[in-house]
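seq:
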Amino acid sequence: MDYQAIIQRYYPEDDALRRLLVKHSRQVADRCLSIARKHRELPVDVQFLEEAAMLHDIGIYQCDAPSIHCHGKEPYLRHGPIGGQLLREEGFPRHARVAERHTGTGLLGYEPETLEEQIVCYADKFYSKSHPDRVLTVAQTAESLEKFGHDGVLKFLGWAERFE
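struct:
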């Protein structure tokens, strides 16, 4: 699978949104790959993990988030399911599941189930598209997740114990 071709299809212009998407996605992918290298005992499909991390936010362009150059009509919280639909239409259902399930620690009824879904969801939490040069710590990330409910924080901290 050529994830760069998919990014090019939905983000054809070399503009601020595309650059932000690629930077954020690369940050997430690199953290995912680092986890896979560190934990060789985990049965992870490394190629799929990188592809899925690079495509997890493919749906942001359809959302309304002007501070990160998104000028669509949908609420930002829906970028995961939107990305999932796009990736299913492209013929990549596994990648679609990762896109759908990475928001929060399982919001909108989409719970990360597979190991790859969990790793992308976990890695994504350390990087904000609003502050692309900032990398949060585990403690800062846990604090930022509290607004979505304490159960999500506990899930995140469980992943931190497993993946760090």
